[in-house]
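Write out a record, focusing on structure:
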Amino acid sequence: MLLLNDLMLTRNTGRPLAKTGTTCAGEMSRANAVEWDLRLPGQPSLTVHDSHWANGERDLVLHKPTVVPEMPAALSNLHNRLRSGISVSPWRGELRIMVFPTYVDAHGRPRIKKSLTTVDLANTMGLHHLRDLTAREGVRLEAAFDRPDLPPVDLDDPQGEKPLQHALFFPTADAETPVVAFVHFRIVPVLRHIGWLSPDDV
């Protein structure tokens, strides 16, 4: 599928890759990783792993191959770092992924920002990309935590006063939405930083 500009995301149709490693919670476990290929014309392809761990955890990460092709340090440094966990939502039949956008610090290291106003999140990811995500069946963007002091998350009238942690909620059977979201909030900001994507498509 075409995400933006010439950025293509394709699910690998082969069997999930069996691997062993450490989960986001720090446990050693085995996983089956569904692979997604991310391609830009003229650039090395990237691989996203959607890892389903034997202990019940699940996360997304930009997978580091045995040999990393030549690329700018900021993107190289994103490999196998800044994983995004996928967890069960308080609502039955639903999962969630935290929407923590990446930025690149002064030393060329990708970092994440957890709390943003909805205006800042829209400016970072692109309002129409957020609307495309939430237009998918059963998908919504909300505050990650149910607290009475938090403003509503409304993409038709995004608030710019109070920073909060945002999360994307999606149906359990929806394998595509969390990967598309992960590419937009975790990988695309780095691709823009290194000049592989136009900064204008936001």
Notes: Residues 177-193 form the longest helix (17 residues). The mean pLDDT is 92. The longest strand covers residues 28-39. The radius of gyration is 16 Å.
